[in-house]
Amino acid sequence: MVRKSVSIAQIKSHLFAENRPSDDWINELRADERKGVQHLLVRYDRMCEREFRQIQQFRDMRAYEKTFSVPSAQIAGIDEVGRGPLAGPVTAAAVILPVSLELPGLTDSKKLTADQREQFYEAIAAAADVGIGTATPEEIDEINIYQASRRAMMRAVETLANRPDHLVIDAMELPLDIPQTPLIKGDSKSASIAAASVVAKVTRDTYMKTLHEHYPAYRFNENAGYGTKAHLEALDREGPTPEHRRSFQPVITREA
């Protein structure tokens, strides 16, 4: 039994440690009548319930994407980021998740914090088959952003270590000889697409931070190339860089 000589602070530290306490210890703790301990247990139970829901959601997303192919198929989720910015590439990722990998809480990268994206990115990069593809601002200007996004996605598939048996793609089809399923809002339905959205987002954001070192006036490290007030003011002062998309209206009107 948990002794009352054990402080509430000590119990809190053990209860919310990275290594989950044993069920026997939790059951003993429930007999502790101190209000502070009972409040901690309420928080603990809520945390466990939230984690359970996240695990179930992830498993449901994996099960949903499996309905589009045979059970043993290698499924690659594909997504892109960077259609809207005024500068920088459009970046796509293709991800084949291992069957054994579970990523509770994984969802559309836009719904995650920067820290959450980084944590998921590290887990995905360490365990999954990941391909990255980009299309440059010059390509975007030449063939338009939609076609450039498709090109980036195809390049991402081509850089996978293994050929996938099926593609699940966020609201797009690709001219590839691989069975595929486009899903509207796929990054909220398919775990593989959600993983691809995280990888693409972190990859592109990291690249834009390196561009900031070359073009600090535009604050690419803060806006990732989107048309913020500070970005537009820098365009007015400095004109566009080689990384700007000259086919995009806000850049066209500010050509040096």
The share of residues in helices is: 40-55%
Strand order, biggest sheet? Answer: 3-2-1-4-5
What is the CATH class of the largest domain? Answer: Alpha Beta
- Give the uncertain stretches in residue-range form: none
> Which second-level CATH architecture of the largest domain applies?
2-Layer Sandwich
- As for the number of domains, it is 2
Instruction: Give the name of the CATH superfamily of the largest domain.
Output: Ribonuclease H-like superfamily/Ribonuclease H
Could you report the average pLDDT, rounded to the nearest whole number? 93
Summarize this entry quickly.
The protein is 48% helix and 12% strand. It is α/β, with parallel strands linked by helices and 256 residues long.
Written account of the structure:
Residues 73-256 form the RNase H type-2 domain. Its EC number is 3.1.26.4. Helix content is 48%, strand content 12%. It folds into two domains: 8-66; 75-200, Nucleotidyltransferase, domain 5 (2-Layer Sandwich), CATH 3.30.420.10. It is flat. It has 256 residues and is α/β, with parallel strands linked by helices. β1 and β2 (90-96) form a beta hairpin. The protein has a five-stranded mixed beta sheet. α1 runs parallel beside α3, α4 packs across α7 and α5 (137-143) crosses α6. The mean pLDDT is 93.
Task: Record the SSE blueprint.
Elements (H helix, E strand, L loop, with lengths): L7 H8 L7 H7 L5 H32 L8 E7 L8 E7 L17 H14 L1 E7 L1 H7 L1 H14 L7 E5 L9 E4 L7 H24 L5 H4 L5 H10 L10 H4 L4
Helix pairs in contact: 1-3, 4-7, 5-6
